[in-house]
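Review form for a predicted model. The reviewer records the input and the model, then writes brief findings.
Reviewer: anonymous (R2)
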Amino acid sequence: MRVLFGVGGGIAAYKAVQAVRLLVRAGHDVHVVPTENALRFVGAPTWEAISRNPVDRDLFTDVAGVRHVRMGAAADLVVIAPATADLIARMAQGRADDLLTASLLVAECPVLIAPAMHSQMWRHPATQANVATLHDRGVQVLGPGIGALTGPDEGVGRMVEPEDIAVEVDRAQHPKDLAGRLVVISAGGTRERIDPVRYLGNDSSGKQGMALAEEALARGAEVVVVAGHLDVPAPRGAEVISARYTESMRQAITSLADEADVVIMAAAIADYRPANQTTTKIKKIDEGDETTLRLVSNPDILSEISHRPDRGNVVVGFAAETASGAALLELGRAKIRRKGCDLLAVNEVGEEKGFGRDENTVSVLDASGEVLAAVSGTKRDVAEAIIDQIVRTL
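Model under review:
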């Protein structure tokens, strides 16, 4: 996606450097257009090095090429960060007194601004009126946040973090084919207590579940994550319900299942739990001493929500197996017949596969066992393929 990245003349311009870096890393073609005051904070060589494109800043260079028209018309998205009080005012008034504001009047693509200024400037009626005007025109306003400002002051007016901008840009390029839908996703691994300091668990990091949450959010869904143990944070915009144990995860999922349009059971749920949890630490008596741990099976949450009477939602399960090839698919087909879900994502796990890694290889089966999609790549790539099949099923 071609991004026109405008930079206002504020101290938060230093944070915009990282935002540009993140967008470039995500594969976007980023063209930075700083105001003259922005260049007082971060120079053109920095923007060119980070964006990998020449920096455009002068309205009167290449006049014959009508550069401001060309730049604005070519953009798929405009991002303004930081959006200072002055820049917001000039945007609201439709001014075209520099290359950035002139390009904005030509751009017909979505526009996202990240305001940054002192608290009093943000709260001033003129600024609030200008922001309201931009909002009414369809401009998306991201922030500002609350935190440390210039000097010793703190309060509202801090520019959102670069990662927040990157997330919003990611969401802007996706179709909103889950708008108005509630998607419930279980993620991470459950841990079953043996005693106060030990548990039964697995190596699930929650990365695949969080990638699914990111993709669903990007496509306009309301997302609730029912989280076991996670090694990664939940994405901005998702509601998170903590569920460390299988029973607490079951209670959360079943309470949400009826109102959800989609339930994705991506969590690595423990099949068994200790029959008896001691209230004190189990002590080793002698070297070579043996003990026996009696286990009982946990409830089958996927089967329970899949077999609800008059179910009207899409339920997606996961099958993590140590088999591969045809044997892996057969295990998946047997599981989807038993569980009764609509879709099943089947993947191979092991010492160097699946759990905890950034890549995954998944086949998506329908209720008849047909392979609808096979994808190998990042966990976000896998999430996109799974959500595609969910949308088609819906």
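Findings: The mean pLDDT is 89.
Further findings: The radius of gyration is 26 Å.
Recommendation: see findings above.
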